[in-house]
Amino acid sequence: MPFPLIRPLRLATSSLLLLLCALAHAQSASQPAAANTPVTRPAGSAPVDGTAPTPGGAAAAAAPTAADAALLSRDARRIYELSRDKLVQIRTLLRNADTQASIGSGFFVSADGLIVTNFHVASQLALEPERYRGVYVTMEGLEGEVELLAFDVQRDLAVLRAKGRTAAAPVLSFRPAPEALAQGERIYSLGNPLDIGFAVTEGTYNGLVKRSFYPRIFFGGTLNPGMSGGPAVDDAGRVLGVNVAKRLDGEQVSFLIPAEFAQALVQRAANAEPITQPAYGEMTKQLMGHQQLLTDRFLKAPFREQRHGNYRVPVPDDTLARCWGSGRDPGFPGLNLERTQCQADSDVVAGDFNTGAVRLAYEAYNAPTLGAVRFARVFSQSFANEQLPKRGNRHQTAAECSERYVDPGSLPLRAVVCLSAYRKLPGLYNMTILAASVNQPTQGVLGRLDVQGIAFDNGMKLAHHYLQAFRWEAAP
What we know:
By secondary structure, the chain is an alpha+beta fold. It has 9 helices and 25 strands.
């Protein structure tokens, strides 16, 4: 009876994102998310509120006319023509074989050849410059070398410079920050999807994503692999965001990085020297900033209490994470088993892997008919079945664990804290905390907290914050 692990947690929360990076390595590494079945209503059927449909009513009035469709099409063509010479494809090539390793998109933002794209498009140039080189390709097929000037791991952005240009580059301008986007405003996303060719996708602005750790624009349009790093522009052709990701379990649910962060990175890159050595030190510095912000937010927002019988377990504030639960599991007769899983949308790309995630999961047991001995066997086995990185890999060391019994107040716990160090990111760890109640003969609660990319001191603060929040509330 294994306790829920990271992979089921991702599937249950339906929060997996497909990063739209290189066609070569991102698609093969990505795993499909479990899709929720949408609630649909056939045309002409009764609305959800039970009222009868009115022939020729609101639904008919909202249908787009041929003139509307033609107008939208003309707008897309106009945007395409305005932007086509400012767009580039970013290719990462193996130096020795000169073969493509990854493909993304980008766009010129300065006459001297500065190009904005995603960090995950350019990460190989940042971390393995001795092995990879980058080139840009225009719509007309003009190809040139690029050099990496700056990157922002937290917001998944990078700035490149086209080398050896003699003519001024045509540039896309940014939409002024005071001109706020309106809900439903039309957006045009540009890029090179699937390495087929440059394309424009129409969609709408739907506000900022709720609970996103860093600001993300909810783009009601389609993005595909290869479009990462391309611009999203308004009706005047001004950049308002950068393509970055989409949901795997939905249609036309995509995400853009707000343009203000790209503008800030461009300013930082303007006088920067090219990055020619592996930039793990800079990436570590930025990830240290991420984990500090993560720690501060979780410590400042008190845990909410979730009730499981007499147990009270900590779950994140609703502004920090999404939580899902399930009731009695019919596969375990005689055992009342409830599950809860929570996840913060705080992942960041660190080369060919992600870090920065925070996940919590619980199993609450109540088995009055099993008896104390049988219950102890089941409960202990569930705790023992927890999977931890017992063997190291090229990114991390094997986990080192410490176990002890703690009593934070009203509920004694068996607690295990495990840390796995990043090999090339000194001072950062993945931390797992397992907690099991030990106060009742036929009841119990198991908790698991996973935090990726955390400093040791902050990890200990989060561990203390987490364990202190468990409670037992005796019946009156």
